[in-house]
Amino acid sequence: MADLVPLVCLAPAGAGASFFAPWGDAAERAGFALTAIDLPGRERRFAEPPVHSVPAAAEHLHPEVSALLAGPGGGVLLGHCLGAWVAYHLARLLTRAPQPPRLLLCASGSAAPGTVLGRRATGLPDDAFLRTVEHNTGFVHPAFQDEELRELLLPALRADVEAAESYRPDWPGRTPFPVLAWRARADRLVPAAEAAAWQRTAGSFAGLTEYPGDHMSLPEHGPALLPALARTWHSLFPVPATAASVEHPC
Description:
- It is built from seven helices and six strands, in the order βαβαβαβααβαβα.
- The chain is of the alpha/beta class and 250 residues long.
- Strands 2-1-3-4-5-6 form a six-stranded parallel beta sheet, sandwiched between helices.
- The longest helix has 20 residues.
C-alpha cells in the first residue's frame, strides 16, 4: 500500500532476514512496509562471501536500501546489535545524497557506534569463539551444535563479530537524522547507559525504549513496539498539508 512507511530491518551478527519474520502482520497493522535485508553470506545470499567490516557491509547494501527509501518520503532504518551499526553507517551514506531521504534510525540492542562491549572473540579457536559469543550475548543458535552446520555457519558469524569488534566510525559531528534506541531490560551485553549513549552521536535523540526479555528476544517483543515506532516517525515527520486539503473561500 502506498501509504505505508518503509521499514528496512538489519539482523544481528550471524542472523539473516528471517530474524524479523514474526513481525510481518504486526508491521503492516502499525503502518509499515517491512523489508528485512540479508548481508552477504546469510540465507538468500548464502553463496556470497561474507564481509568483514561495517563500512563494507553498508556499501554492499547501499544500492538496495537506497532504492527502498528513495524519494522524499524516506522511512525507518532499524538494526539490532551489529545490524544497528550497519544501519547507522548506511544512514550516513544515504544522507550524503544530493536529495537525502527523510530517515529515522532505530538502534536496537546496541551501544553507540564503535563501543565494543563484552569479551573479544575475533581470532579465537572455534569452541572458544562460540563460548565467548554465548558469554557476551547469552545465546548461540542450536545449529552450532551440529558439526556440519557449524562448518557452514561459522564463517558468517566470525565475519560479523570481526566487523563489530573492528568498527571505529570516522564520521564527523552528530547525525543529520534522528535516532531512537531500543534495549531489552535483561540484556547483559548492552547496559542501559550504553544504549542511551546514542544520544551523543544523534543530531536529535528520540529516546530510549526498553522492552522485556534478553539480548536476542527482539523477534518476540518487537511487534508490540511497532505502533510506538510509527508514532515516533509521524511526530518527527508529519504529513505536510496539501493544496487539496486546504479550504478556500468561494
